Amino acid sequence: MDQAEKEGWFRHVSEICQSKAEEFSFLGYENVTAKDIWECVSHAYKEIPPMHRLVNDVLSLKPNKYMNYLMIQMYKNS
Q1: What gap in Å lies between CA 75 and CA 25, rounded to an integer?
Q2: Residue 66 has pLDDT above 90, yes or no
Q3: pTM reported for the whole predicted model
Q4: What residues contact 11, with CB distance under 8 A and at least 6 apart?
Q5: Residue 29 — φ and ψ, nearest 5°?
Q6: Among 76, 62, 56, which Cα is nearest to 24's?
Q7: Is there a contact between 45 and 2 (Cβ–Cβ < 8 Å)?
Q8: What is the three-state SS of the chain?
Q9: Which of 13, 61, 69, 76 fits 40 for a cystine, CB–CB 3.0-4.6 Å?
Q10: Using CA atoms, how far apart are residues 78 and 13, in angstroms rounded to an integer?
Q11: Contact in structure between 54 and 48 (CB atoms under 8 Å)
């Protein structure tokens, strides 16, 4: 899946990602954005799954999984 496809699908689920980012903020993870949530959820997709799976993946994202994703990205980028 290329970056343009990811951007297109992000527009469809951006409100859900924003809701999840607000939930994380409520839990003390204040610097999380909707885009961060989307990158975490979509990084493993080789192709776009059905919409119900996208929504489920966003809504079921736990802070632990998000923090693991960030740690892996930090190691990859260093």
Answers
A1: 24
A2: yes
A3: 0.89
A4: none
A5: -95, 80
A6: 62
A7: no
A8: CCHHHHHHHHHHHHHHHHHHHHHHHHCCCCCCCHHHHHHHHHCCCCCCCCHHHHHHHHHCCCHHHHHHHHHHHHHHHC
A9: 69
A10: 30
A11: yes
Residue 47 tokens, joined: 């192709």
Determine how many CB atoms are found less than 10 A away from the CB of residue 8: 11
Q: What percent of the chain shows pLDDT beyond 70?
A: 99
Q: Say which amino acid occupies 76.
A: K
In the structure encoding, which two tokens stand for residue 77, read together? 């980028």
Structure-block tokens of residue 43? 């990084």
- Summarised one tens digit per residue, pLDDT across range 21-54 is 999 999 999 999 999 999 999 998 888 889 999 9
Length of the chain: 78
Tell me the C-alpha to C-alpha distance, in Å, between residue 16 and each of 7, 73, 78. Answer: 15, 23, 31
